[in-house]
Design brief:
CATH superfamily of the largest domain: Winged helix-like DNA-binding domain superfamily/Winged helix DNA-binding domain
CATH architecture of the largest domain: Orthogonal Bundle
Number of helices: 11
Number of strands: 12
Shape: elongated
Largest sheet: 5 strands, mixed
Strand order of the largest sheet: 4-3-5-12-6
CATH topology of the largest domain: Arc Repressor Mutant, subunit A
Helix content: 40-55%
Structural class: alpha/beta
Strand content: 15-25%
Distance between the termini: 54 Å
Radius of gyration: 23 Å
Length: 311
């Protein structure tokens, strides 16, 4: 069969994958990779959890590889599993496209779209996207997922529909387009000596910073200070940007948030020096051409960014 031949040629799978191979196992594997867990895969396929586990076991024997391993509460693909996921997702996408309607009916769709983005942009961009989806696809679901080192693989496997990131972080066979420039502001408590001021980089370096570990602005400010030979004082490293304003309101720390973020009265904005320029962010996606729903979602993301920029 052509499908089996293509899979064996692409990933050098053993002879146990032959013409008698049960193609339903690939459908189960695609669901596990898309959903990220056996439980959710079983739910999406309307079968029992044991059925999915049994199918995975048979596929592992046929391919001669564990394919996915559990780390904590998540399933992570092996190198062979990652290659197989890309091949299977492409094949399943082409099969679905042959039976899918010519156009995506957003008004009646109940599809759940998955969008990965930096934690710092969930507020300014994620909420605006929720509004767009609610208006144009009122029955659809939206999952805002944190951008991680595995996002590129998830885009390729189809478990994430689109992602927002600075250029260069997501690599692979993905499509991309410029989406928006993100500008930043420093924030301090309302009685801080820098409240309402316009400090230069040296003045910023005199105060300890509250940073979010994987936020793009964290690397931007750090590299600018290092280029000037200035030592950065890290007061606290946070796991989520939602805590930044709460931390600076109660301390003498300086935090950094998008310039579009609304601030409470206990927090004041500090204009950043011109060296802390806006950062271009691109939209990344994988299967828009084969999936009318994904194509609609990409168009909605682009429209959301345009509305934010115009506003």
């Amino acid at each position: 069969m052509a499908v089996i031949h293509d899979l064996r040629r692409a990933a050098a799978y053993p002879a146990r994958v032959d013409a008698s191979f049960d193609l339903n196992l690939l459908r189960v594997f695609d669901a596990v990779m898309r959903e990220g867990s056996v439980t959710r895969a079983a739910r999406s396929l309307h079968v029992t959890q044991s059925t999915v586990s049994h199918a995975l076991a048979r596929l592992r024997v046929a391919v001669g590889d564990p394919l996915v391993v559990r780390r904590g509460n998540a399933m992570h693909p092996t190198s062979t599993g990652r290659r197989l996921a890309v091949e299977v997702h492409d094949i399943m996408g082409r099969i679905r496209a042959n039976f899918a309607p010519a156009e995506f009916e957003a008004a009646s769709s109940r599809r759940r779209f998955v969008f990965a983005l930096p934690d710092t942009l969930v507020g300014p961009f994620g909420i605006a996207l929720l509004g767009q989806v609610a208006v144009h696809a009122p029955h659809a679901g939206l999952e805002l997922r944190r951008l991680t080192d595995t996002t590129a693989d998830e885009l390729a496997a189809g478990s994430v529909d689109a992602a927002l990131s600075v250029p260069g972080r997501l690599v692979g066979a993905l499509r991309s387009a410029p989406l928006l420039d993100v500008t930043w502001q420093a924030v301090v408590n309302s009685t801080h000596p820098l409240a309402g001021a316009t400090p230069d980089l040296a003045e910023l370096a005199r105060w300890p910073h509250a940073v979010v570990a994987d936020a793009p602005v964290t690397e931007l400010v750090g590299s600018l200070l290092a280029a000037r030979g200035l030592e950065r004082r890290i007061g606290v490293v946070l796991t989520t940007s939602a805590l930044v304003t709460r931390v600076v309101a109660a301390t003498e720390l300086i935090g950094f948030v998008p310039s579009t973020e609304h601030l409470e009265q206990s927090v004041r904005s500090v204009a950043l020096p011109p060296e802390v320029h806006g950062q271009p962010h691109h939209l990344f996606w994988g299967a828009a051409e084969a999936d009318p729903a994904c194509a609609w979602f990409v168009a909605t993301l682009l429209a959301t960014a345009a509305a934010i920029t115009d506003g």
